[in-house]
Amino acid sequence: MKVTYPFFSALFIVLSIYSLSGFSTASAQTGSISGTVFTDDTKESVPFATIQIAGTSIGLAADINGVFTIPNVPIGEQTITIRSVGYQTYEQVVEVIANRDTELQIILRADNLNLNEVVVSGTRYAYDRANSPVVVNLIDNKLLNATQSIAISEGLNYQPGVRVETNCQNCGFTQVRMNGLEGAYSQILINSRPIFSALNSVYGLDQIPTNIVEKIEVVRSGGSALYGSNAIAGTINIITREPVENNWEASSNTASVDGVLDQTYNFSGSIVNESLTNGVTFYGMNRNRDSYDANDDGFTELVQLENTVLGLKTFLKPNEQSKISLDFSALNEYRRGGDRLDLAPHFTDITEELTHNTFFGSLNYELWSKDDRNKVLMYASTQNTDRDSFYGGLGGGRTAEDSLLAINAYGLTEDLSVVTGFQYNHYLTNDDVLTLGVENQYYDTRDEIQGYNRLIDQQVNTTGFFAQYEWKPVERFTALLGARYDLSNVDGNYQVGNVSSTADINIGVLSPRATLLYKINDDLRFRGGYARGFRAPQAFNEDLHISSVGGEPLFVILSEDLDKETSDAFTGSLNYTSTVGLAQISFLLEGFHTLLRDPFTQVSAGAVLPNGSILEEVRNGEGATVTGINVEAGYSPSSKLSFTLGGTAQQTSYDEPQVLFEPEGVPAPGEGVVSVDEFVRNPDLYGYFTTFYDVSNSLRFDITGTYTGTMIVPRVVSDSGFLDLFESDPFLDMNIKASYSFEVSDDLDITFSGGAKNIFNSFQPEFESGPQRDSDFIYGPMAPRSIFFSIKLGKLN
Length: 797
Prior knowledge:
It is a single chain. The longest helix is centred in the first third of the chain and has 12 residues, at 9-20. The strands form 9 sheets. This protein has a 22-stranded antiparallel barrel. A 4-stranded antiparallel sheet has the order 3-2-5-6. The chain has a 4-stranded mixed sheet with strand order 10-14-15-13. Helix content is 5%, strand content 57%. By secondary structure, the protein is mainly β. The two termini are 29 Å apart.
């Protein structure tokens, strides 16, 4: 069983006492191992590193000074394993002599490529990333800091197969695409729980600040066998900071986005007792960003944004074999786009204004046996969002009818998700692992705008039963076999104007998964897998987002005969990792092939409802295929320098041409049916690169960037309502950052940082103008060039 601090550090102490208690009467047959754990660059001590005797449950955590002593170790040759977050795993064979202490000096080397991190998303339990049968990529604090990412949405692009795009100029809606599939095909997890609802998927990635994040784990391809509906393209697991040691920090970041001010303040801190039996970490953020108008037409391309977040995460270990953990976050966000932001929304031509009040929370109870072979996890997580919204305006008109419709364009949304579950892990003596569990997911959404007679009232209740077996018949081979059966009920009412539909659907879906890992040699690994996924017939993120086309609101409604969507995903990869002296090398080549059956497709009939709204409908299509390769390479010659490069090449196709636009009546010349045979807003080629260079212990340079290839983007021509297809130019979005740190005292460090994001100002060159514009016609990098300066102070090391 792979373990690491902070999750199991106290457990190591307990297990060492329990496992060695039988040797207490035979002291002549035991010795001890002691020592200190240092870093390889600064030679400073590494606090709370975990030390374990291989093949036994004997282990403990070093103290705050990196010092440890393991008593009652059986005599003879013993292999010790030392781990700490951010460092390479260290192993050493030690000769233990009866009644003697063997003293060691352990030097840990930096793990710049995260090859030895422990991950949980691929298996639902802790696993050494290098040996995981599922490919798991990591986004850590180093990357988020290097890219000067304020919110999670700004840092997700730096992984193969992952791309974040902005979809609306009026509200700043973003979504993340994985392996060529749009946002609704990915499951967003908070601390491994699927409480990120359809509404959160619209704006939530912009609302969660990076200063609360410990790491983000990315698993591409199907994950429905573990996490249920929507995990077709993959899962993104946002893991918040654990209380590890006593520290604190406060920071300020000031950015000028082509002259527009973006100001952010952050604070965080942790308090942990000496026995590591309880601790708490707390955090907060306040962000204010002015709106940005790229073409001086008086309408926003970047929305005004105000965001405040407060939260904490705490744990308590009541006894030697149990742990209780609690975390919660509360956020308030205001965003507004359109024109004349100084006026009340109903006096403007176009405004999209939203205020979110959101609460995330979870409670976990873990219990494990003394022999470390059995573990039980019980959990309950929830999310609640109240949203006030305005979608509309006068649309350039000033009639009494225009004014009445605008005044009534205010809306209210209530969104609740509750996830409860039970999981049991049994670790067999041959290192096989059996996982069993049951999970209930409940989502309740009511989204209403009375002025448009628009309503989404939906409850989705899903109970899933999952089982997984990790089979290791020989040392070099691992197979992960699992399945999940979901019973899902969708009860919904959907209405826009005089068009309505209902849903009372009960479905049962079996989602199997099989993956394997074969170690060709110590450095080269082959992985292959198959996964079935599904999406329930329910309202998703795009359906809860209202854009503006030709000055009129555009709404999405579900077809009454909408059925579930399923997928079959196949993956295969070769992964080479090696450590030679101080250097680390990593290379991943991964192929993927995903088949979608009865995919949800959004069709515009070009119809305008009596209340002035444009209607689109979600229907089941005829099928689609996504095929591609992900490539990632990393090289770190020393602890001070590292390079990574990654990219995706893909092809998407529909089994039959997909209709995007059907004009009413007899179309004008050149304005007939518009259809496509490939996915829109989906480049065939995209990628990223990073360079981190510690010039000294004080000075650091970071160079990062993303590339987005050409893609087809739909555009509604405002004067006719006709849908056009536009081919975009490629984009290179490159950032540079320099940081300088110095120590004022043992409890105070200061870091100054500065740099530029999108230094070549690679931003969309053309936008639709005026109140009749298509606000969805936006693509490429999120923002134009910005210059930033930040200061961070606190007990940082």
